[in-house]
């Protein structure tokens, strides 16, 4: 990794909600960077805080109920210090967002063409005719057939995959430097899903933007990521480049996720047990209750610090990588379950998923 300044730098990001059950900590002390042109994936089970983390960056979350602490810098600018108007400019400009459900993000009362025109004009002072022309180019670029003819169609006249393409066109309209994509393909069937992933990849190359991609699907991670952040119960458990994460997953949680990989979709059996109560997280490692390797130290104090594994830019929050422990116990345990990355259908022996 180079020493150039990151495009986005997030430090000690902590987002809490006030609920009837008490303070719910959705994201707890998250640190990460995104460099220019890079695709960073946040992966983790439902409820681990992926969406809240990504929506805390540009503060899409309404505040209150959310309370956001920590530091977010975009191109060196302190995002936390921006006014509401500046935040709106940031969201409609340098940072684009696409969501799982284009249904919710598109306005049913306007043609898709005009929604893109609006997105262009929000950012650029161009004539309506020019914005219209650019909107058609964008629709064409994201693979809407007969873009000119479809400009005046309403969202309901598009299929799910086509609607997602329209959303991508809208997000691209202001030529963002960072695109935040929160489960953008989860609602789509597998064929359409891979077309959309290919589209995002092509567009990224063409526009040179960075992508923060959120998914619970390691299959998708393998396809799109340069670097991976594994989140669990609001904490960063492991980070590394995509090859390292798939070849040498270091955290028992990451290893457990890998084991769910072949059954992509509904058939995934998942990891036994469930996430801890976010209003009352346990001491020690948040995953300790579900971890086959947990020892007493894992249930004491704070979440372990992120230890270097010895592989470049690979860090893991697990006591076994700290002083006095032998990490080979974890790494070898992983090896014995066979290569998890994409071999498909391997029945595993022993451990977490056994009933
Ligand atoms: N507005 C809110 N008020 C209270 N709690 C919230 C709110 N939004 C999210 N949470 C809680 O924050 C935690 C993290 O939620 P988040 O949606 O970020 O998870 P996720 O990793 O994106 O999950 P999924 O894969 O299901 O999208 C969860 O416990 C969730 O219930
Ligand atoms: Ni989410």
TrEMBL record:
Pfam families: ABC_tran (PF00005), oligo_HPY (PF08352)
Protein's organism: Halorubellus litoreus
Coiled-coil regions, chain positions: none
Name the UniProt record assigns to this protein: Nickel import system ATP-binding protein NikD
Annotated NCBIfam families: oligo_HPY (TIGR01727)
GO molecular function: ABC-type nickel transporter activity; ATP binding
Name of the top EC class for this enzyme: translocase
UniProt-listed Enzyme Commission number(s): 7.2.2.11
Localization in the cell: Cell membrane
Membrane topology of the entry: Peripheral membrane protein
């Amino acid at each position: 990794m180079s020493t150039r300044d990151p495009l986005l730098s997030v430090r000690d990001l902590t987002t809490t909600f006030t609920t009837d059950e008490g303070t719910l900590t959705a994201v707890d002390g998250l640190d990460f960077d995104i460099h220019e042109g890079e695709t960073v994936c946040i992966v983790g089970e439902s409820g681990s805080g992926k969406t809240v983390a990504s929506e805390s960056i540009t503060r899409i979350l309404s505040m209150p109920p959310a309370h956001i602490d920590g530091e977010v810098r975009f191109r060196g600018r302190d995002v936390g210090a921006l006014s509401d108007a500046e935040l709106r400019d940031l969201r409609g400009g340098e940072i684009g967002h696409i969501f799982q459900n284009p249904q919710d993000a598109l306005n049913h009362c306007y043609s898709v063409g005009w929604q893109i025109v609006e997105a262009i004009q929000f950012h650029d002072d161009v004539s309506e005719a020019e914005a219209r022309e650019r909107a058609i180019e964008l629709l064409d670029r994201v693979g809407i057939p007969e873009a000119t003819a479809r400009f005046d169609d309403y969202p309901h006249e598009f299929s799910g995959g086509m609607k997602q393409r329209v959303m991508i066109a809208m997000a691209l309209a202001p030529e963002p430097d960072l695109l935040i994509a929160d489960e953008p393909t989860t609602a789509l069937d597998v064929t359409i899903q891979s077309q959309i992933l290919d589209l995002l990849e092509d567009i990224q190359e063409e526009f040179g933007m960075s992508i923060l991609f959120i998914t619970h699907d390691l299959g998708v991670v393998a396809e799109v990521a340069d670097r991976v952040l594994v989140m669990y119960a609001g904490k960063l458990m492991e980070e590394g480049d995509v090859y390292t994460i798939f070849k040498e997953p270091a955290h028992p949680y990451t290893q457990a996720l890998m084991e769910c990989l072949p059954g992509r979709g509904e058939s995934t059996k998942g990891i036994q047990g469930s996430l801890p109560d976010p209003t009352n997280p346990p001491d020690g490692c948040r995953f300790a209750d579900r971890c086959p390797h947990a020892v007493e130290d894992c249930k004491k104090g704070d979440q372990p610090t992120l230890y270097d594994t010895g592989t470049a830019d690979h860090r893991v929050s697990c006591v076994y990588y700290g002083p006095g422990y032998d990490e080979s116990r974890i790494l070898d345990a992983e090896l014995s379950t066979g290569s998890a990355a994409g071999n498909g259908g391997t029945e595993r022996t022993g451990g977490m998923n056994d009933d």
